[in-house]
Amino acid sequence: xxxxxxxxxxxxxxxxxxxxxxxxxxxxxxxxxxxxxxxxxxxxxxxxxxxxxxxxxxxxxxxxxxxxxxxxxxxxxxxxxxxxxxxxxxxxxxxxxxxxxxxxxxxxxxxxxxxxxxxxxxxxxxxxxxxxxxxxxxxxxxxxxxxxxxxxxxxxxxxxxxxxxxxxxxxxxxxxxxxxxxxxxxxxxxxxxxxxxxxxxxxxxxxxxxxxxxxxxxxxxxxxxxxxxxxxxxxxxxxxxxxxxxxxxxxxxxxxxxxxxxxxxxxxxxxxxxxxxxxxxxxxxxxxxxxxxxxxxxxxxxxxxxxxxxxxxxxxxxxxxxxxxxxxxxxxxxxxxxxxxxx
Length: 343
Known about the structure:
This protein has 343 residues and is α+β, with helices and mostly antiparallel strands. It folds into 2 domains: 23-114; 135-342. 28% of the residues lie in helices and 43% in strands. This is Outer membrane protein beta-barrel domain-containing protein. Keywords: Coiled coil. Residues 73-100 form a coiled coil.
């Protein structure tokens, strides 16, 4: 499970390579045309060299003018046959390509125009009335305070309220749900989430079998921090109060230009857990990082919501499952901060 990040990166790389490697009708036809042009140029160049060799023999008196003319004619005819054979093969490829297009097996646009990595609006899911794009994409970044809840009570005595933080970044797609109304949107994507908590009173986490408990450390700690990293799939129903714009009798819908409100949730997996301890000893600074599962739940799911204006929102998220699998006390992560949705 901890190696999931590596596998995900490899999977994305292979997917992008496959997408970028796909060829369309235009690109394949151009490739065949270039092949025919190359065949013609190469064979003519070879013929020119052969004719020059005949001219050398003629100038040296090794053959007569009649023999030279006859040899040049034979060489030209031979090269013409070779060109015809090779071009015929290329034309057969072109015929097969045309048939594939007729059968609908090949895209019509060049792949370099079809697949573009960008954060602004995509050329997809166009409005049937005004030809408007109904799906946009955003880069998402969020950060703020992080802590734990037990039975609805904040555990700010066990964890530093100001010192515990969360970070989240990723991308989302925002699809307008109705053709002629801009209010409701489905917002979905992929995010990388960092949840950090800093235990108070010189404590750190210690694993005792199936239990993971906070215990006072024998060393005077300068810092004690516990970090969990997740890959999550967030899904929200977004209410966007951006008013449509009318130009030349046409109505155009926009997003992220007014007040927005979103409610939904997320689900994902834990890809890394580690504890970071910093301390001074014998006039030396030490930093230890210990990675492990710490009995942390491999999966995460919860509720989240945001409300804001344009790109900036106030963001809250709450895990419905406990941080640790079998602890006697169920501690659940809660986060509050700012969220940026950048078109």
